[in-house]
UniProtKB/TrEMBL annotation, chains A, B:
This is Transcriptional regulator with XRE-family HTH domain. Residues 13-67 form the HTH cro/C1-type domain. CDD domains: HTH_XRE. Residues 111-164 are annotated as: Disordered. Gene3D superfamilies: lambda repressor-like DNA-binding domains.
DNA sequence: CCACTTCGTTTGCAATTGCAAGCAGAGTGG
DNA sequence: CCACTCTGCTTGCAATTGCAAACGAAGTGG
């Protein structure tokens, strides 16, 4: 009754926060809201007001619009949610640059899908291996780059080692 | 603290309503909110939640974004570009991927600008030393990569680390 | 083992939202 | 003059937001 479908936005916030690898309290502090309230928001127990939403967006360094859309407070059509379309429509880019951007973008989406399956590795600070924290970025980019650097044509961007 | 400066949005709503030549009650009905509450909102005595704001926007047949901007709930930034907005709004990317994409994009824009001496209304206070004569794609991408591949200390990336 | 820290969560409670009902003023017209 | 209708505004009140404080769990270190 009191929570129709606020869950989606809570999940989204939590997802974004965990991807940013910051704790609930950290985000709460960055957003200027209380920790317990953020906890309740993330679990869909509370429906944050627009102000809170905006602050959380800032704390997450994401677009407030993204949050509003997730919360169903903005019609999707109002936001250019299509990255590829936006890139294609950008007149400041050369055609080549457009292609590169689109390719990298699509490569990212592919990796994101693959990465979503292994979201369980919660590491604690300064306790051991850093592994894929800082290495994944260049890897992702290099992978996306290859087809252009070598002009190979088609390259699958997967080199991860998951499950065994 | 008891009287927030929501006056601007109230004024804006009232303006829009009068421009549409409808009464307060009519708009209240169309928006699905109570008349007295709308009255208080218009006079800045109440701070409506995002939901109410959205409903009012619908009742006024105006963009919800316009209202959010008026309410200060969306940073009406310089509208960096549709591409950046789209990337920021993309819920399928991780934050890091977003940053990388935006970085690459801005790197492209930078190079394009250097190549194209067509500065119109831009004031980007950043010193780019990546002016390559060659326009080879790998070069461009490497430029965008450098902050990540080398070290994550110094990079002219868009960092909004303002503390309030 | 106990102090110390960090994590997310639960528990009251003040402050606020948002509404139903009612108030005051300005037209209309019988 | 009174009834009716429109305008916007004020008054209680239930429900909700949002926070301070405290709680259990899990890790670190003396």
């Amino acid at each position: 009754m009191a929570l129709p479908k606020v869950g989606s936005i809570g999940e989204y916030i939590r997802e974004q926060r965990q991807q940013a690898k910051i704790s609930l309290r950290q985000l709460a502090a960055a957003a200027g809201v209380s920790n317990p309230y953020l906890s309740q928001i993330e679990r869909g127990l509370r429906k944050p007001s627009a102000e809170i939403l905006n602050q959380i967006a800032k704390g997450l360094h994401i677009s407030a619009q993204a949050l509003y859309v997730q919360a169903g407070l903005i019609e999707d059509r109002e936001t250019p949610s299509d990255v590829v379309t936006a890139i294609r429509a950008d007149t400041h880019l050369t055609e080549r640059q457009r292609q590169v951007l689109i390719d990298i973008y699509e490569s990212f989406r592919k990796e994101k899908r693959a990465e979503d399956e292994q979201t369980s590795q919660n590491a604690h600070p300064r306790s051991g291996s850093v592994t894929d924290d800082e290495q994944s970025l260049p890897a992702e980019l290099r992978a996306a780059l290859e087809p252009y650097a070598a002009s190979t044509g088609n390259g699958t961007v997967n080199q991860e080692t998951k499950e065994g």
